[in-house]
Structure formats: C-alpha cells, structure tokens
Write a structure and sequence with these properties.
Helix content is 72%, strand content 0%. By secondary structure, it is mainly α. The chain starts with 8 loop residues before the first helix and ends with a helix.
Length: 394
Amino acid sequence: MHSLPHDHTGARIKRLRLERHLTQRALSDLSQVPYSTLAKIEQGVTAASPYVIAALARAMRVKVDTVTGQPYVTELRADELDVLIQPMREALDVFDLGPDPDIHPRAHALIAADTEEHLVAVRAGEIKRVAAQLPGLIHEATTAAHAAGTRDPWLTLASTYRTGYDVASKLGYGDLASIALARMDWAAQRASNAVVGAMSRYMRGLTYLRAGQYRTGERLVQVGLTDLEQAEHSRERDVLIGQLHLGAAVMAGRAQDRHRAEGHLAEASRIAEQTGEAPTVHWLTFGPTNVAVHHVSVLAELDEYGAAAQIGKSVSIPREWPASRRSHHFAELARAQMWTGALDDSFANLLRSRKAAPQQARYHHTVRETYAGLEAAKRQLPDSFLSYGSWLGV
C-alpha cells in the first residue's frame, strides 16, 4: 500500500487500523502509543515520530514503509525513476552465475575508477544518473570479479553493490537495499576484507533501524565491531568503528534507551578526536562534525527536540561534506524545530535540504513528515510553502 495524492501517514494508519478491525483504543493499547497522540496523528493534526510509526507498524504487523507510503510511486514515475529499479534488481540477481560470456570487461583500473565516481556522485545527490548507469557497471564488475580470481575485483564489485544500496534506500526501496547489502557482504567475504564486511553490517543495521527492529540492528553493529577485531589497526579501521558506534547510538535513542545511546556517542567522540575529520574514508563522513550531527539525531529520537534544535543550529558543516549528508542534517534539524514550534526556522531548513540535494530531499521521509507537520500547524507560512508541497507531490 503506497502513498496516494493528498495521502498522509495518519490517513494510512487509520486505513490500516480499520482493515484490521481495531479501534483507536485497541491500537493504542497494543502499540503503547498514547490514545490522544494516535487520534491526533490520524486526524493529521500531529506528525508521527519514527518511534511512534515503528510501534504502530509492529502492533499492526505491517512493514514501516507500508505506514510511511514508501516508495513514493507517483513521484518516482513522474521523475522517470521507477523504470530504473528493475534493471538494478536484475543486475543484483546474477551475482553467483559466474562470468557472462557476452560481457568483455575493461581493465580493472577503469572499472574501479567508475565505481569510485558513482560513490561520489550519489553523495553529491546525482541519484538518477547513477541509477541509470549502475546496472551495466554491476554486470561488468560481476564478470570481472569471477574471471580474475584475485581480491581487488571482488572489492570493486562490493563497492558497486554498496552504491546499489545507496540508490535503493534513498528512493525508498527497502527490500532492494537489503538485497544489495547481502551481495556486498558476499563479495567482501570473497575479498577477505573485514573492514568492508563490517561496513555491510553497519548499513544492514540501518535498514533494521528504519524498519523499527532496533535489537536486530544493534546485534548487527556488534557483529561488525567483532569483525573489525580481525582487521589491522589503522585509521580506516578506527573510522569504521566510530561510525558503527554512531549508528548504534541512533538505534538506542530510537529505542528510548538513553544510557546506551550516550555510551555509544561518547565512544564515537573519543575515536573522532583521534581520527579528526575523515569525510572521504569509505565516504562515511566520520569525524567530530558527524558525532555532533548524530548527537542532534539522538536527542530528537529521545524526544528532546529543544536541545536537538539548539545543538543543531550550532553545528558548522565542513565545506567538503557531501551534499547528501548536508541535506540529511538539514532535514533532521527541520524536524526538531517543527516539534519546538519554530516553524519559520523549520521551513528554512527544509529549503536548505532541498537546495543541498534535491533528488534526495524529494524522497526523504523526514522531509515529507516535517512538511506535513508544518502544514498541520495551520499557522501563517511563506507563500513558497505551497510551492514546496507541490514539488514534493503531497
């Protein structure tokens, strides 16, 4: 069940509830979401937080993306992005068939260069171009890895799968993102690379975070940390350990476990002091700035929106940060400001999120939920607000 014109999360929750013959009181009891909160969400008066959405989804035994309406099919079709998904599925499906006799791969250095360029491009917000080119590159890299019998081509293939995850998750195709990560881990094992294997665990953990399955996500993070014990000590290894702790902090925050969240943030901060800013190490953007950005996210997950908004405004984003990360931060900050009633500031950050990475922002669930929350506030907003909503397709 995907989003419809003028649909919103509250309307979908109501429709799903009625399909299951549940009263608001019954769903409130099952999910432990306060009755008054559920009623306001269904009416479109109050935005639903990620924690509430996950709790309601579990109670109704549906996927989180069924509640959020992802992928946003109508908008994807309008942007001609929906036709790019099936070729990616097909490219991910031939992983174990060996070399394709009809493909004659280029030299490894050329394939690796294109793979790196795609990693950079998707972080610059060029989702459509990467989605169009990626299936062919995956096919070529798959044949090259099977034919070479050495480690480097397998690492390159793992990198193409990672980009597949990036594209699928940004467009709201959670099932495809999970398949891409499984392929990434498969290729990393053939390259005998613990760091890349741990990175796939981290990204897989994020898929469970979005699905509201925090315990599984945290278990994956712990497996990733265990994998890194096999890796040689290096800055690369430390960066990934730090990023795993940041992911675990957000998961703990969304699970409303302040103690664990603060512990993971503290460990990530300690590591960031040693590594410094490392935006290009595996393109994880790790460093003190990312720790501060994740602190904002954790506070928001703990419903401390005032503190999140205050700290978020003080974060200075380095110029070398990828557009996709800047866009995500502005979306998170806008959400916190919306909940504190700072509507003008919130909308200003939605505009910043769109300016930084428009293709990403258009399909970003936080952007859409924040816009819906601003609209529900029924206060005077700039004339550009309705234009923004038309751009989102809501």
